[in-house]
Structures are given as structure tokens and as C-alpha cells.
Design a protein that fits this description.
The protein has helices at about 40-45, 80-85, 90-95, 115-130, 160-180, 190-200, 215-220, 220-230, 280-295, 340-355, 370-375, 390-400, 435-445, 480-490; strands at about 1-5, 15-25, 55-60, 65-75, 100-105, 150-155, 205-210, 235-245, 250-255, 260, 300-310, 325, 330-335, 360-365, 380-385, 405, 425, 450-455, 460-465, 475. By secondary structure, it is α/β, with parallel strands linked by helices. α5 runs antiparallel to α9 (about 280-295). The protein is elongated, with a radius of gyration of 24 Å.
Length: about 500
């Protein structure tokens, strides 16, 4: 999708499609009128039924005049950046239904919100709404296909061209992240993801090292190897590096969980839970595309993305409950449940980051626990951190991007729950409660003593229905959150 910005005052002609915005009136206030140059629309159409509710749309294909789409923004008192992103989803859906390939967006002035925020939010909403994944359809292929090829934003906002460039890069990579997660696990296995990561070396400042099974064995990553024991495909550890900062500037490391399919192992997942387990690499996908975005934006930071990759399958060689394996840092781990495998591969990757890469900050992102989904539903992810400043940075980024997160506490009393009778630590709590916190406690053991945060996106990585600009299936959650965090890291 191509997006561009123009200053107001452009003349429109028959064949153009114009997207206009109207808020929902509050109390006794009169409805907000359309821009003066479109006052004729009110004379040609009866808009009394149009309430201006968020995402409400009306389409007017006028004879001898430009076609007009009017989009409701909701009550002005409730309008913010996220509501603006959501409100345009209905307009994009209409464009796709009507095969409208180009739209002119008249960016409104909204009281209490600066013009740059209004522009960026509407642009993001349109870009992220314009998505579908239908590459495996043989009949009716293209129904619902992204048909909006160009969106021209008419705005008085300063730095509009820079906003468009950033929006295109960040949102474009979010769509690529969705594609990678939606891809079938047969193609998006450890080799496939490693190839995708390796392809980023074409970007200036990016290098990629891929460690195969033999190297992982030499490094003694016993937990990653344990999860891989039942697989016919090799494990891989991918280390992406972007050097955009000054010499000597310390790195941020993003560690992403890359379970390319999770059967649950011996603790097999039941029907109703196993069907979409190709999503279990969503953390690795988010980390990969966050680094790609940072490099393409030429951010002045130094950044690593560490991706431990394997599937979790069943075979006579599969690891079993009661087994004990040695992690990269020498910790012995009892397997309490083979379906708590993500924390195992993250533990080796975190230990590697701490010992070898030595970054100033580590953020891991993972579809880690079903408890996260049960607690927060599909709209909010959760996080735990050992550093309050890092926590505030993540929350500021969440507020800015609309990728909502909520902090959970580390409870010292729960540390005993992760102890093992036969090893240093167990990968499963002795109690069934507080599963998301317990997963965080396990990871904290391997995260070192520096600044670290764990983001659990099991709740937000995949959606069971469309919610505004977030589609059904893979959402790409985390890319925008991580990029905004990186942008603000050294401010």
C-alpha cells in the first residue's frame, strides 16, 4: 500500500473517492458540519440518520461528483489516538467491498489532539486494516483482498512526509509479521524462519548469525535441545545484530520465543487448543520485524534480536515429564510439563544474551501462558519486569501505539513454587495458580541482574474475530510496541 501526504486545498474530480470524518454529537451540541467544500453533500443526502458513532460509515457514489465516504469518529470526549485507529476499519472494509483502489483522506482537526497524532493514528488504522491472508485459497481468491492501493492524506500537520514514511515502515513490517505467523508451520519451521532472518542482511547495518544443531550442542544449550528431541527438524538459534548507534553504545536485546508448532509434547494439547499452535513463534516474529523496522528507520541504537527456534513434537525420542536437563548457564531443570516448553528455549536464549551479548537491556516476548489469555482476554498483553524505569518505558510505548499491556508483580513468596526435589529448578509450578507470574519467575532465574522485562503475548498474538484494525488470526502484536520502546530508549 502506498501512502502519501498533501497539503489541504487539492481540487477533486469525478472518479475520486474522498474519506471524510464526522463526530457523534454530544448532549445538545449541534452536529459538526462537513468541510465547506463538501457542503453540497448535506444537501444531496439525508444525513439525519447518520449518528457519527465510531466506525459508522456511509457511502455516497454521487453522479458527476467525487464519491464520498463519511466515517464516524464517536464522541469527541472519547476520541484519542487508538479510537481514531479503530474508527477507520469500517471505511477500509467498505473500500475493499466496493473495489476502491485509491482514496483521498481529509484529515480532520480534533480539539485536544495535535494534528500529527491525528494524522499518524488515522494513517496507521487505514494501513493496518488493509490486510488479508488468502494465499492458500483456490476458489474466490481475492475476496476481501487488500484493494486499497493508495491513500493520499490531505493534512496541515507538520512533518507529514516523515510521518508517512514511519507509518509505512512500521505498519508494513507489522503486516509482514502477520504473514509469517499465519504461514503454515510446514514452511515457517526453524529453517524457514532462519532464512527470513538471514534475508535482513541486505539492510545496511544488519548482520545475522544462524547456529545449527551441531553448534547448539557445542554451546550446551540443553533446554533448547531437549524441546527439539521429538522433532524431525533441527533446532536453530538466530542472532540478528543491528548497529545503528555510536561506537561503544550498549545494546538492547530482544529475545523472541520461536516454537514453530507446539503439540504440547507428551503433555499433548487437546482439540480446541492445538489447531492454531503455529502461532507459538509470534514472539520471535515480533522480535525479528522490530529489528528490521529499527534498521530501516535508521534508528541511532544498537540492537540484538535472539530467536531460539524449534517445534515441540512427539516421537519415541521426545523429552518427558520427570526428565532433567542442563541449561546453557549450568542450571539443572526438571521437566514438570512438556507443554511448558517455551520458557525452556527462552531460558537458554536469555542465558546466552546475558553471558555472550551483555546488553544493557533485555526484553523477551513470548506466547508463554494460557493463563495470560484467561486473565486478560484478547485485547491486553501482560508483562513483568525487574526494573521500574523499563516498565514505564514499555507502558509509555503501549499508550502511544495502542498495544495495551498490564504489569503483573513478582511475588517473592512464589519463588518456592518453582523449586524441584531432584534439580535446581522445575519448569512447572507446584501449584496451578498464577501461571503467568510463575512463568515469569522461571525466566527471571536466567535473565541476569540487569534491566529485563518479559512480555507475554499469548492473549494478543492471535484473535478469534476482527477488532477494528486488528484482523482475525495473527495480529502482529508487539512489533509497534517494541519499535516505540526502542525509539524512546535513549531519549
Amino acid at each position: 500500500m502506498k501512502i502519501e501526504a498533501k497539503k489541504p486545498g487539492h481540487s477533486f474530480k469525478k472518479g475520486d473517492t474522498i474519506l471524510l470524518f464526522m463526530p457523534e454529537p454530544e448532549g445538545t451540541k449541534k452536529p459538526v458540519l462537513l468541510p465547506a467544500e463538501f457542503s453540497y453533500v448535506s444537501k444531496l443526502l439525508d444525513l439525519s440518520y447518520f449518528k457519527g458513532k465510531q466506525a459508522e460509515v456511509v457511502f455516497a457514489p454521487l453522479a458527476d461528483r467525487p464519491a464520498v465516504i463519511i466515517c464516524g469518529t464517536g464522541k469527541q470526549s472519547d476520541t484519542d489516538a487508538e479510537s481514531l485507529r479503530r474508527c477507520v476499519a469500517g471505511a477500509v472494509s467498505l473500500c475493499r467491498e466496493k473495489s476502491i483502489k485509491k482514496i483521498h483522506v481529509l484529515v480532520p482537526a480534533i480539539q485536544g489532539i495535535d494534528n500529527t497524532t491525528v494524522l499518524s493514528s488515522i494513517a496507521e488504522g487505514i494501513y493496518l486494516s488493509n490486510y488479508s491472508f488468502d494465499r492458500y485459497k483456490t476458489k474466490n481468491k481475492g475476496n476481501g483482498k487488500p484493494l486499497v492501493e493508495t491513500a493520499v492524506f490531505h493534512t496541515a500537520a507538520k512533518d507529514a512526509a516523515a510521518i508517512m514514511k514511519k507509518t509505512a515502515l512500521v505498519c508494513g513490517n507489522t503486516l509482514l509479521c502477520r504473514d509469517l505467523i499465519n504461514e503454515i508451520s510446514e514452511k515457517c519451521d526453524s529453517r524457514g524462519m532462519a532464512r527470513e532472518a538471514k534475508s535482513l542482511e541486505r539492510i545496511p547495518g544488519v548482520s545475522c548469525t544462524v547456529y545449527g544443531k551441531r553448534e547448539i550442542e557445542k554451546m550446551k544449550m540443553g533446554l533448547l535441545l531437549a524441546v527439539n528431541k521429538g522433532s524431525a527438524k533441527p533446532p536453530m538459534l538466530v542472532v540478528l545484530k543491528y548497529r545503528g548507534g555510536r561506537p561503544g553504545q550498549k545494546y538492547v536485546a530482544i529475545v523472541g520465543k520461536g516454537i514453530t508448532f507446539d503439540s504440547g509434547g507428551i503433555n499433548l494439547k487437546p482439540s480446541g487448543h492445538i489447531e492454531d499452535m503455529r502461532t507459538d513463534m509470534a514472539g520471535a516474529a515480533a522480535a525479528l520485524y522490530a529489528l528490521k523496522t529499527a534498521a530501516e528507520l535508521k534508528l541511532p541504537v544498537n540492537l540484538y534480536a535472539v530467536l531460539p527456534l524449534t517445534d515441540n513434537m512427539i516421537s519415541p525420542e521426545s523429552f518427558r515429564p520427570g526428565d532433567v536437563y542442563t541449561a546453557y548457564d549450568g542450571t539443572t531443570v526438571e521437566i514438570g510439563n512438556t507443554d511448558a516448553e517455551g520458557r525452556l528455549i527462552l531460558a537458554d536464549a536469555l542465558s546466552y544474551a546475558v553471558k555472550v551479548l551483555r546488553p544493557e537491556v533485555i526484553i523477551d516476548i513470548a506466547t508463554l501462558t494460557g493463563s495470560c489469555l484467561a486473565t486478560f482476554g484478547e485485547a491486553v498483553a501482560c508483562y513483568l519486569t525487574t526494573d521500574d524505569d523499563l516498565g514505564r518505558l514499555l507502558e509509555d510505548a503501549a499508550a502511544s501505539t495502542g498495544e495495551a499491556i498490564w504489569r503483573l508483580p513478582f511475588v517473592k513468596e512464589y519463588d518456592d513454587n518453582m523449586k524441584s526435589d531432584i534439580a535446581d529448578i522445575c519448569n512447572m509450578s507446584s501449584e496451578k495458580n498464577a501461571g503467568t507470574i510463575m512463568g515469569g519467575i522461571f525466566l527471571k532465574h536466567f535473565a541476569g541482574k540487569g534491566k529485563w522485562a518479559h512480555i507475554d503475548i499469548a492473549s494478543t498474538a492471535r484473535a478469534t474475530k476482527q477488532r477494528g484494525y486488528r484482523p482475525k488470526e495473527a495480529t502482529g502484536f508487539g512489533v509497534r510496541l517494541l519499535v516505540e520502546t526502542i525509539i524512546n530508549w535513549k531519549k
